[in-house]
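--- STAGE predict ---
source: upstream dedup step, 1 unique chain passed
mode: sequence only
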Amino acid sequence: MLKSRTPVEDAIREKIRKSMLPTTLEIHNDSHLHAHHKAMQGNTSAETHFRLVITSKAFRDQNQPSRHRMVYALLKEEMDRPGGIHALQLRTRTPEEEEKENAAEAAEQAKPVAELEQH
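--- STAGE serialize ---
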């Protein structure tokens, strides 16, 4: 059996999918952008810095700090492990918040077209 080349990312994906049942889950490994940082000297892991976008009903009735604590608790093992997650950037939202954001983005993208059509 082949060993995964992205065990930390795989663990993040598995834990969030099982625990939070996300409707959207984006995992971006930004470790290569930070490899030159002093804190990363001597670290051989290519999985230290992640940016996550998570949409889940599990975040309903939770403020942003509470949502982030939920994710941190879920990934505690990966964060505590030597060479594990050093930095985690989170964007957490409910399905309703995502829908509202998507509608606002679509309206913003449609604006220039509508403005051009008026002239």
